[in-house]
Design brief:
Layout: H1 2-7, E1 10-18, E2 29-32, E3 35-38, E4 44-50, E5 55-59, E6 66-69, E7 77-82, H2 100-110, H3 112-115, H4 122-125, E8 126-128, E9 150-152, H5 154-161, H6 167-187, H7 190-197, H8 201-211, H9 215-219, H10 223-238
Parallel strand pairs: 1-7
Antiparallel strand pairs: 1-4, 2-3, 2-5, 5-6, 8-9
Helix pairs in contact: 2-6, 7-10
Length: about 240
């Protein structure tokens, strides 16, 4: 009788709840060697064919795992309490570093036709004719008139006069302006200014706006020049103003 009782398989239903709030835990994993199930929205589960001594394991994200050995019960319903686990993570500092040169190369490849746009030049306006080509005399235009050698292409002239207002020209200027802005932002970055001046918050933003170098100046500076420039500007920035008379 004892051996037959050990071999007897039993179907078990149960519920998994939070130990502190006593609320059901949904989607918890309940497993035995022969079966793995998930709890329902109400925290309920059913295991089929459990034997005495089977290890029962219950796990869920945010809770400590529950492990116990199953033995035949008078009641077929069990209640499992899971205790919340607190995971303390260390502070993580994320710094984004971008290479202005790489961004510039990528941008110029993507908008190559825009960067290479030149528009209509003065050479395109005039149409040069071969002086050796015979033109019959119409008794109105002199054969020695300059108009017989050079004429004006009106469409090219209109295009040249309005090339600065062309959409491609405007986009080209905006892309170049953005490229120069990104380059200056890398050379004269907030991270670099903070490391040298220890400025933060509104003071840092005021300093950045007031002493931001031009693209031409930034391109002519080495790393040492930028550092000295920031130090000089900071000395001027913290210098107390002269008292008013």
């Amino acid at each position: 009788m004892f051996l037959s009782f050990q071999l007897f398989a039993q179907n078990i239903s149960g519920i998994v709840v939070d130990k502190n709030t006593l609320l059901p835990i949904a989607h918890a994993t309940v497993s035995i060697p022969s079966q793995i199930v998930l709890t329902s929205a109400a925290g309920q589960f059913i295991l089929i064919g459990m034997h005495n001594g089977d290890p029962l394991r219950v796990s869920c994200i945010g809770y400590r795992s529950y492990i116990a050995s199953f033995y035949a019960l008078v009641s077929d319903t069990i209640r499992i309490y899971l205790e919340q686990s607190i995971i303390a993570l260390k502070d993580v500092t994320i710094k984004a570093k971008r290479n202005a040169n790489t961004d510039s190369i990528r941008l110029r490849k993507e908008f190559a036709s825009v960067f290479n746009y030149k528009g209509t030049s003065i050479k395109d306006v005039f149409i040069t004719r071969d002086p050796y080509v015979y033109i019959p005399n119409d008794y109105i235009t002199s054969t020695n008139n300059a108009t017989t050698l050079i004429s004006v292409n009106l469409l090219s002239l209109m295009s040249m006069l309005g090339k600065n207002n062309a959409p491609v020209s405007k986009l080209q200027k905006n892309l170049i302006r953005e490229e120069q802005y990104n380059y200056v932002s890398q050379v004269f970055s907030k991270q670099k200014v903070t490391e040298i001046t220890k400025l933060k918050g509104d003071s840092l933003q005021t300093f950045m706006d007031k002493y931001r170098p031009s693209a031409t100046d930034a391109k002519s500076m080495s790393d040492y020049d930028v550092m000295m420039y920031i130090k000089r500007c900071y000395a001027e920035f913290v210098k107390p103003g002269e008292p008013k008379k």
